[in-house]
Amino acid sequence: VIVADLVLFLTSPNGIPLWFLGLTAGYCVYALSPYSLIRNGSFKVLYGMLLATAVLDPLVLSVWIALTGQFGGLIAGFYLFTTLGFGFRTGQPLMHLCQIASIVGFSLVFAFNPYWQQHGVFWAALLVPIIVVPMYAGKLIQTLRKAREHAEQESRGKSDLLAKVSHELRTPLTG
With left for phi above 0 and alpha for psi between -120 and 50, is residue 12 left, alpha or beta? Predict the structure, then answer.
């Protein structure tokens, strides 16, 4: 994303703005900071970090989109990437928390950024998948987890049956 925005700013008549370099540095610090927490974290710290990043990741993305204006449209899809990532890694509750933060963040972008206000249809076209896709993915995640649990139960049942049959066959043969 940083490289794509750099290329776009380089091709624009104004060049790379100084605030973009600050934004890039701030984002790099934000992206690398969890590594120090992970190394020394307990379960409680790690879960707190998951909750925080479920909210902060889309909000940081919103700041990026708001500041980069028209170029921000290139990365609006990362709302889905982030939200679905939480869903598949941690389950539906954090996915929906991230989804809400994404909707709020992208709505704030619309409320405060003139570019997005002028391009409301484009903004709405990007917002609709942020709302709909995680709901659909949540149903798929739920179905997938139920199927996995069922398969695990069937596998345990099969193992138990084979153990019993094996035992019943060995007992008379041993005698």
Answer: beta
Q: How far apart are CA 87 and CA 6, in angstroms?
A: 31
Report the percentage of the chain scoring pLDDT > 90: 34
Q: Which of 20-29, 38-47, 126-135, 162-171 has the highest mean pLDDT?
A: 126-135
Q: Look up residue 131 and give its two tokens.
A: 């709302």
3 state DSSP class of 41: coil
The answer to whether 75 and 1 have CB atoms below 8 angstroms apart is: yes
For the residues of 138-165, what is the DSSP string, one character each?
A: HHHHHHHHHHHHHHHHHHHHHHHHHHHH
Q: What is the pLDDT of residues 141-167, one digit of tens each?
A: 888 888 988 889 888 888 888 888 877
Per-residue burial over 88-123, b if 16 or more Cβ lie within 10 Å, else e, is: eebebebbbbbbebbbebbebbbeebebbeebeeeb
